[in-house]
Amino acid sequence: MGNKEITKIPYDERTDDQKLESNWNKALKLFERKDWSACIVRAATSAEISANIYIRNFLSNNFNLPASYVDALLIGANGLDGKFKRLIAPAAKHLGTWNELKVLQKKIELLNDHRNGVVHGGKFKSKTDAKAVIEHSLIIIKGLSPHEALKLDLQKVKKS
């Protein structure tokens, strides 16, 4: 489904895949418009949605848990860092993939520092900051939801 079709779907009715794609595209547009701070928030949101995808896939594929229960876990884990530490790490250890995913921790911390600086501190960010966040977000997305990462427009990232 192309981005034009996704925008016709109300946000709350979109799948996680569609939310990831629309937030990623918005982050790139904000980068092009030199709105560095807003770009950082959208890129961080994209990474967090990829965490949701990872967790939903793990819990659905392995335990067939109800969506409402998974939603409650995702809300309770609070943010990308919380989801990574409380849900993804135990799942990855169970799956035997922790060694591959634990390298994402530092990138998540950097991403959170930038995002929280904007959202909670009102900081203004630079192009260098935004570019770093986009790059870290992309690595996180590829690590947590590689299938969905294939659908993202990566050409704009390479040009910036």
3D architecture notes:
By secondary structure, this protein is mostly helical. It has one domain: Four Helix Bundle (Hemerythrin (Met), subunit A) (Up-down Bundle), CATH 1.20.120. The chain is 78% helix and 0% strand. It is built from 10 helices and no strands. It is globular and about 45 Å long. The mean pLDDT is 92.
Annotated CATH architecture: Up-down Bundle
Q: CATH topology, which one?
A: Four Helix Bundle (Hemerythrin (Met), subunit A)
Alpha carbon gap, first and last residue: 25 Å
H/E element sequence: HHHHHHHHHH
Indicate the overall shape.
globular
Q: Which stretches of 5+ consecutive residues score pLDDT under 50? A: none
CATH C-level category: Mainly Alpha
Number of strands: 0
Helix content: over 70%
> Gyration radius, to the nearest Å?
15 Å
Q: If you average the pLDDT, what whole number results?
A: 92
Helix run count: 10
Strand composition percent: under 5%
How many domain units? 1
Structural class: mainly alpha
Let me know the largest β-sheet. none
Compile the SSE list and pairings.
Blueprint: H1 3-7, H2 16-32, H3 36-63, H4 67-77, H5 79-95, H6 98-101, H7 104-119, H8 127-144, H9 146-149, H10 155-159
Helix pairs in contact: 2-3, 3-5, 3-7, 3-8, 4-5, 7-8
Summarize this structure as a short list of keywords or feature phrases:
160 residues, 0% strand, single chain, 78% helix, mainly alpha, Four Helix Bundle (Hemerythrin (Met), subunit A), globular
